[in-house]
Amino acid sequence: MSELHSSSHNQAAPSTSQWRVLLRDAFFTFILAWIVFGPITGLQLAGLEFIPNWQRPLLLAITVTLGRLLFLSALNTSWLKERLARSAAKESRAATVQSAQEWRKWLVVSAVAALVAFVLPFVFVDNSYVIKSLLLAMIYVLLGLGLNIVVGLAGLLDLGFVAFYAVGAYFLALGAQYWGLGFWSALALSPLLAAALGGLLGFTVLRTHGDYLAIVTLGFGEIIRLVLTNWLSLTGGPNGMPAPAPTLFGLEFSRVSKFGGTPFHEFMGWSYNPNMKFLFLYVVLFLVVALMIAWVYRLRLMPMGRAWEALREDEVACRSLGINPVVVKLSAFMMGAMTGGLAGVFFASYQGFVNPTSFTFFESALILAIVVLGGLGSIVGVIVAAFVLTLLPELLREFADYRILAFGILMVLMMIWRPRGLIRTRRPVFTIPESKL
Prior knowledge:
The protein is mostly helical and 437 residues long.
């Protein structure tokens, strides 16, 4: 009994040698954190002079060191080791298998969540800030669904997805200025243009994989942004250009009609509400997102979706099964690009103005983070992550200076604890009743 007690005590508490390793690790962690945070947060620029302020990097370095020390100490406990082993075994599975009963529960929960998302803007009909935040979150849901096809299902790392987003937005603005196109025309035609560019990009990267594919797509996104910035005669350059507001059968959502027609609120006999335009955009976008979710879900069950997942897991095995990877890659890029073009039209109409600063690499990184944090291939996870990553910064505006730092910490923690994302891919399981066996 005494031997068992001593062995369990040794497992619970770190030994002297382990404490030495922990203290050595804490020392180097403090030095490294000081080197990283010192120049960034310890020097403030005032005119042409630097004002040193070493309290902030010192506190950050101490916080990181203590966190690292507590984390490594906790890893030595047998309870946490068992939990991590179970979690690793669970996360090693690519998908979660659900029974028919569990699948029905998910459908009920999804239906209730969709109903709440649809009704919520009408509850805050007089609150412009809430409606705009929800509309922006829904735009990122649409972008996440598009990139999820390319990255989550097909396994093609695309860092230039914002290019298709910009193409859709500028198509609405340029179409209204040069060809007299409106919101509905751009909504129908922009996916075709974005799909053509997606096919062009996919054709040029057929022989690239992994990091090389990411570099090429990143360059494609930067090329589109630089073209929009420097083609002053067409796009207006950094000054941007206006985008038209949406209409419904020629009825405008402004207080006074700009084209001599009847405003929507006068036609309906309602009092004017400046948020009516954003409510209309939200309703249309909600329907588009609902159709996109159903479409992506059906594609996953079809041979095309199975081919995407086969390409993601092993391209050599995909070729050996007789699947043409050229067609699979092109279809993934084109369908993802179509979704990005749709989202760009909604963004331009929502903002009423487009310029290249709205389509930087950070936007591509944010959309990719939505897919990764939500779960590769998971539709529900992408939706949840899009709302979290767009609404949470709005709720924490007081900590705006630490937004990028918190974003990086969140990514690191997610890669450690839930590498498959918040909600992993779920597949239904079909059981045969015993009476039919």
